[in-house]
Amino acid sequence: MSSDAQARQGRQPAQEIERLLAEIEQLPDPQMRALAEELVRALVALYGEGLRRIVERLTAAEGTRTLFPAAGPRLLELLASDELVAGLLLLHDLHPVPLQERVERALEELRPVVRGHGGELVLLRVAEGVVWLRLTGSGSGCAASLQYLRQRIEEAVYRAAPDLCGLEIEEGDEVAGMPARGGTPVPVVFVPRRRGGSLAAMATPQTETSLRGE
């Protein structure tokens, strides 16, 4: 099975859970609704604790009781490369790769595509769960090319970091709020958070990390 097929297959149970959670929120009986929500919280806490113990065993320091004294962290990162597993780890703040590093890896894979359209893609900063990017020189002003690149960027970034609160894409050669070449204001495209639902909302945004020394 291809990685794309696995990803689609993994999203189906998550989407079904989100649908059921939405139905729970609409239950007319408040006592039944509270009981169902408490059951969901208990189940999430149960498998979250199980995941925490697995991660703890995999990343235990050398010399402690672990089956993988050296390869454990690498194995955990390999497991986290699966979209479904990554989502579960993120839900419980157990993902081994920091948010910024995941975004940087996604952008590095995407840069050849952007450069193929005559553009460049720069990560400016990650602040409170929002990623700021600058897209310059792409498409020679072609609206269709810009739209295509924005879509590819959005898909790649959110696939790598579904725990993001949002994505800001600046188009131009200067920072947002400052004039670009020729005195034209730099347009800023805000891509809002795409993840929704009660389970997804449990992911915690990252604290600010600036790449411009701010």
TrEMBL record:
Matching InterPro entries: FSCA_dom_sf, NIF_FeS_clus_asmbl_NifU_C
Pfam families, per database record: NifU
Residue ranges occupied by any NIF system FeS cluster assembly NifU C-terminal domain in the UniProt entry: 103-163
Domain of life per record: Bacteria
UniProt GO BP: iron-sulfur cluster assembly
Function in brief: May be involved in the formation or repair of [Fe-S] clusters present in iron-sulfur proteins.
Gene Ontology MF: a single term: iron ion binding
Protein name, per record: NIF system FeS cluster assembly NifU C-terminal domain-containing protein
Phylogenetic lineage: Bacteria, Bacillati, Chloroflexota, Ktedonobacteria, Thermogemmatisporales
